[in-house]
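pls design
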């Protein structure tokens, strides 16, 4: 296992205040990481997570930051600068909410919304952190999806965005793995999260009827933590 406790460890997590992002925040903070959690708009959930962190005496900062924009990153940059000598792990988890629907009912805005968050947002925050991550041979993890292997009906925009994110992940590995950057992707199956809770009962019953194992955000977060800590054999993204 990689031991970077001498310098300290930081986990930057996008979409950090609910669903898998919240589970990741708690998993990494409990393991001793200082968490920099980024969220786009859900301030109410951020306050809840912050209070839970405080109650458990976990270290973390939760920042409202639109990762799809090149605008004001002052608060984020200040926290990163204060920790620049530490080992960084970036987990690109954020994804735009969506409700599955037939392909012919999609508009291009459905695709662009998914691409903005999954791809543009990941690109911008990765590029911003790259000098710091490279300096201490950090880790970059992207959250893909099992739908890439066997696409279900209704997931067109999400599938396209996650496919593009997979390409971005491979590009990062090709460019920087020889400089010590560790690059991984994870592809969770269906999880019960605030995103999927908004789906219709009919759609959820169809997913249940497939007989696939329904994963919990907590279990997936534990597996991501194991990857970040080097407890598993490295897999190419």
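designed seq:
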């Amino acid at each position: 296992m990689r031991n970077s406790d001498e310098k300290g460890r930081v986990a930057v997590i996008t979409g950090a205040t609910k669903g898998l992002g919240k589970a990741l925040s708690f998993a990494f903070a409990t393991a001793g990481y200082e968490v920099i959690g980024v969220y786009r708009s859900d301030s109410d959930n951020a306050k809840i997570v912050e209070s839970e962190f405080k109650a458990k005496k976990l270290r973390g900062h939760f920042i409202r930051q639109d990762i799809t924009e090149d605008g004001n990153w002052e608060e984020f940059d200040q926290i990163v600068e204060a920790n620049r000598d530490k080992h960084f792990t970036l987990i690109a988890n954020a994804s735009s909410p969506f409700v599955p629907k037939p392909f012919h009912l999609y508009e291009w805005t459905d695709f662009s919304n998914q691409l903005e968050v999954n791809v543009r947002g990941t690109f911008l925050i990765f590029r911003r952190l790259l000098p710091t991550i490279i300096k201490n041979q950090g880790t970059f993890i992207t959250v893909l999806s099992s739908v890439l292997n066997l696409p279900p009906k209704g997931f067109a925009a999400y599938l396209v965005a996650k496919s593009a994110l997979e390409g971005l992940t491979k590009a990062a590995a090709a460019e920087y793995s020889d400089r010590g950057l560790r690059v991984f992707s994870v592809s969770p199956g269906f999880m019960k999260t605030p995103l999927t809770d908004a789906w219709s009962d009919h759609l959820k019953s169809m997913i249940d009827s497939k007989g696939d194992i329904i994963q919990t955000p907590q279990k997936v977060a534990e597996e991501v933590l194991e990857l970040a800590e080097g407890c598993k054999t490295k897999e190419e993204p």
